[in-house]
Amino acid sequence: GAGLPVMTMPGMLWERARAAGRRTLHEAFPDRGYGDDGRLLPRHLPDAVPTDPARIARRAVELAARVHSVCVHGDTPGAVAHARAVRRELERAGYLLRSC
Predict the structure, then answer these.
(1) C-alpha angle 2/5/9, rounded to 5°?
(2) Which of 28, 31, 72, 87 has an alpha carbon 20 to 30 Å from 42's alpha carbon atom?
(3) What span, in angstroms and rounded, lies between the C-alpha atoms of 77 and 69?
């Protein structure tokens, strides 16, 4: 499919984009918790929004092996520290960071 790729998590948008012939890129969020079903936990639940930059960075490295994009939420308190820690750990793990 022509046009920009669709970056999303697997789900309805993913399926519709693929059905339309669009390239899909799997996005993941190391600064959010996931349920057993692979969906993001609602923010009010325990462990839904981790705050420790080191924990978030380790999770980013784990996710990077399985996804196309690792996204840190800019509206989360501590987001700048989270993003810096994620970048540092991804580079330390040998990942090349670039725009899609």
Answers:
(1) 145
(2) 87
(3) 21
